[in-house]
């Protein structure tokens, strides 16, 4: 009898330890991404004018045109792999509730051309420090160092042209 009590106590202890070790994972399927604009938690689609694509909030999928076909992916196409969604403008489509927002693509494209900026937007979350977010994807921008290196190349070519000019030589390669 004493062994049975000891066995039950040990089983209860193991069961309590197992219950305590369970991990709670909370995944918000259908919630807006951290780069989404504040104030639109119930919206279904964003139109991203800079990349001419849509974002389906409930399914967390981008919708874009590829070789004449609209496709849904969790990522943007290769040419926009460096597009910064935190700084890009998002047109919130509050008036559309279907499954194919691209039905109005021509209208969206003309009304919200690349570079479109409406009223100021604030993101739901902050951009991650590591900049390797799953949502990171901005037209290729060069780093400050690369920009300066390229500018220095142009400056040295300009200086070479100026030297030729100053020494009475041909300015055939001079840039205007």
Return the domain count. Answer: 1
Give the end-to-end Cα distance, rounded to a whole number of Å: 101 Å
Measured by DSSP, the beta-strand proportion falls in 5-15%
Number of helical segments?
Answer: 3
Q: Count all strands and give the number.
A: 5
- Tell me, briefly, the overall form: elongated
Can you describe what's shown?
There is one protein chain. The protein is α+β, with helices and mostly antiparallel strands and 176 residues long. The chain has one domain (30-163). Helices cover 28% and strands 12% of the residues. The protein has three helices and five strands. It has a five-stranded antiparallel β-sheet with strand order 4-3-2-1-5, with no helix packed on it.
Structure summary:
The chain has helices at 2-20, 105-111, 144-166; strands at 45-48, 53-56, 61-66, 69-73, 91-93.
List descriptors.
176 residues, alpha+beta, 5-stranded antiparallel sheet, 3 helices, 5 strands, 28% helix, 12% strand, elongated, disordered C terminus
Summarize the topology.
Elements: H1 2-20, E1 45-48, E2 53-56, E3 61-66, E4 69-73, E5 91-93, H2 105-111, H3 144-166
